[in-house]
Amino acid sequence: MRARDCAPARFASRLATVPVSESEVAGRLQLVSQNVKPKTAPPVPARESPAAGRQRARRGLVWGLCAVAVLLGAGGAAGLSHLRRTLPRQIAEVLAQKLGGAAVEVGAIDFDATGVTIHRLSAHRPEAGVQAELRDLRMALSLSSAMSGNGAVERISVESGEAALALAPLASWVHSLAAERPGPPPHGAPESGALTRGELPGIAALLSPHATIAVENLVARVTLPSGVVSPWTVEAAVLDRRGLTSFGFRGTATGTGGGLARYDVAVDLARRRLTARASIDSLPLATVHRLIPSVPKALLESGELDATVQLDGDGVSPDVRIHGTLALRDVALQAGWLGSQALAGLAPTIAGDLTVRRAETRLVSAAARIALGRIAIEIDGRRPAAAAPDAIEARLVVPPTPCAALLEDMPRALTAPLAGFTLTGSFGAQLTLATTGEPGTEPIVQVTLDQHCRFAAIPSWADPDRFRRPFPHHVFASDGTIYYIPRGPGTTGWTPLADISRPLVTTVLAHEDDGFYHHAGIASWGLESAILENVAKHRLRFGGSTISMQLAKNLFLNHRRTVERKFQEVVLTWMLESQMSKDEMLELYLNIIELGPDIYGIHQAAAYYFGCHPRDLTLVQAALLATFLPSPRRYHDAMIARGGLTPAATSQIRRLLGIMEALKSISPVEREAALQQMESMRLLPLL
User: Fold this and answer.
1) In whole angstroms, what is the distance from residue 196 CA to residue 182 CA?
2) Count of H-run helices and E-run strands, the chain
3) Residue 236 binned pLDDT confidence (cut-offs 50, 70, 90)
4) Which of 65, 130, 192, 422 is most exposed, with minimal Cβ within 10 Å?
């Protein structure tokens, strides 16, 4: 029988009136299968050319199609009825085997002159995470190429299907697909990112050189445990003789609590090009926490999120570029390290760019701008090309910003205690960080501060004039209660700076803030040391406090380590620096500083530990008191328990005296004399 004799219409007209029972249809189907597809295929002649082999395969396909046409025409309604009953079961068995024993169900199948429709197909295999259901799958077939001997399917379209896909197997399939992608082509070969014929056995091999399979307008619906429902549409997925060459999809997602996400992805594997765009409108942050449980819930208590992301990559550049924006509205943050109150009403915005090296899947460069009103932080970083893989060069910049923005644009929980202040001028800062990536090397940190804030108005409770006369100073008792002690010129125990021994002044400055007389309240070198410590210990902790900052804390604030207190401490430090001389600040500091349990001021400390006046303190005595300053109660209690200087106190004194010698605050002779005196030093509380 020749291909041109196998027209379906001709067979239908000849055989449509022949009555055939269902048993006869089954018998004819068995006979056709035996004739068309024998159990043992004859061997291909050794000298048969590839072209001849393809032609023979095409003839076989034509014979098979003719046999089906004969069967359908002869069987009429009975034959189609039999196929509708048996084909679903046969398809289900084949798919179950392909899916490793999954439970597969195939619904009704309809045939017409232009193709086949499968009304429902589902697969379920819980242990492997496979669960999928497709409905109304339409396979449009054109037999023109088959009649000409090509035997190819020109197009498959899924026109109005719906899918409920488990997220885990979908991700697993994508990962395995990425793992199977071929490497770069040999030198001189045409570059193509398409999945090859060998990677898609049994599909691409069936196609003629000019045939393609395209999936179009497939609508799927993914429901996550968090309640987010995402319907998406596959616009086109094209498979030709080279393999899968391109695909794209777009869609929307809505959450049960509100919010809308849109996304549009196009992938051209042949040109190795990816373009993806996504946007999120009014997404509740509570939904974000359900999607990403690792994010602390305290950071996502309320508010909404708007975001856009754009990703571009092509085969020419080795990098993938990502640009995104993020806008938060009415955010309230609540956490102990932030402060005693929630930071409500926040509306920060973030815009940034990332560059990722595809071959190494690592970040190459990043840039971002974080803004809260008029206050902004600009960050950019990169990995040097010729350096070690872990080398980083980063820069953080606070551009010139109005000082007034600190009080007007920051959350009210931070600024409420500073009511009554009015700021003018501007401030800015820059931080650079560089790491070599080599083991045993420390990062290089540099901080530059540019502070020109001025105080146009100061509330009466913070007016420095009140500290130039007697004032009640609040202190914390050992049991945590607050009480007040009289301080200021003219009060009992007040010691002017000129009446304090010079060794005490030099040891305190060397231990706490050797640049006190040169900075404007916040020392860049103190911040650099704090940053290095945080990087080395992989933690975030405040540090770098100057004497000016400690004075502001002791005069006005509590001792909690929170963002709230640190922010207020910075503003109050600037205020003190702008309204008082350095000598005034140092004198006030030495007269209120805590140096033991319920021991405040150098006058009380000198009398308690050594039974002398502050003017008579020796170098080694001053060094001991200076080492108390980080934790005076802990050092005091340790010495009382030991009955003398602890090894830690001795080590600290030796270290401090060495620093003072290096700073040329003391001579080598003075240092040796102090160390000898330390051996015989006695403390009154221990006698």
Assistant:
1) 8
2) 18, 26
3) low
4) 422
Check: CB of residue 542 under 8 Å from CB of residue 564: no
Could you tell me what percent of the chain has a pLDDT over 90?
A: 32
CB atoms within 10 A of CB 329: 16
For 381, the 3-state DSSP assignment is strand
In angstroms, what CA-CA distances link 533 with 327, 433, 540, 548, 627? 32, 13, 9, 21, 20
What type of residue is 517? Y
Q: DSSP per residue over 129-176, as a string?
A: TEEEEEEEEEEE---HHHHTT----------S--B---HHHHHHHHHH
What residues does 248 pair with on adjacent strands? 236, 266
Q: What is the pTM of this model?
A: 0.67
d(CA 478, CA 396): 41
Q: For 90-104, what is the mean pLDDT? A: 79
- If we measure between CA atoms, which residue out of 570, 579, 628, 572 comes closest to residue 600? 628
Whole-angstrom distance, CA of residue 449 vs CA of residue 523: 8
Q: 400, 503, 491, 489: which is closest to 453 by C-alpha?
A: 400
Give 363's strand partners: 356
Query: Which DSSP category does 336 fall into?
Result: T
Which has the closest alpha carbon to 277: 316, 250, 304? 250
Query: What amino acid occupies position 208?
Result: S
Q: Answer yes or no: are the C-beta atoms of 197 and 205 closer than 8 Å.
A: yes
Of 233, 88, 214, the C-alpha closest to 160 is: 233
What is the maximal distance between C-alpha atoms in the chain?
128
Buried residues in 23-33 as b, exposed as e (16+ CB within 10 A): ebbeebbeebe
CB 565 within 8 A of CB 557: yes
Q: SS3 letters for 228-277?
A: CEEEEEEEEEEEECCEEEEEEEEEEEECCCCCEEEEEEEEECCCCEEEEE
CA–CA separation, 376 vs 430, rounded Å?
Answer: 12
Dihedrals phi, psi of 255, to nearest 5 degrees = -100, 155
CB neighbour list of residue 62: distance below 8 Å, 6 or more residues apart: 3, 6, 146, 147, 149, 151
Write the DSSP symbol of residue 536.
H
CA atoms within 13 A on the CB side of 189: 8
What is the Cα–Cα distance from 425 to 82, expressed in whole angstroms? 89
The alpha-helical segments, DSSP class H, found in 385-515 are 404-408, 412-415, 502-512
Taking only the tens place, the pLDDT of each residue in 250-280 is 777 776 677 888 888 888 877 778 888 989 8
Give CA separation, 488 vs 96, 264, 467, 553, in Å.
Answer: 89, 69, 6, 17
Convert the pLDDT of each residue in 140-187 to its tens digit.
555 444 444 333 333 444 443 443 333 333 333 333 333 333 344 433
Decide: 473 and 592 in contact? Cβ < 8 Å. Answer: yes
Task: Give CA–CA dist 81/109, Å, rounded.
Answer: 10
Strands 426-435 and 115-125: unpaired
Buried b (16+ CB within 10 A) or exposed e, 421-450: bebebbbebbbebbbbeeeeeeeebebebe
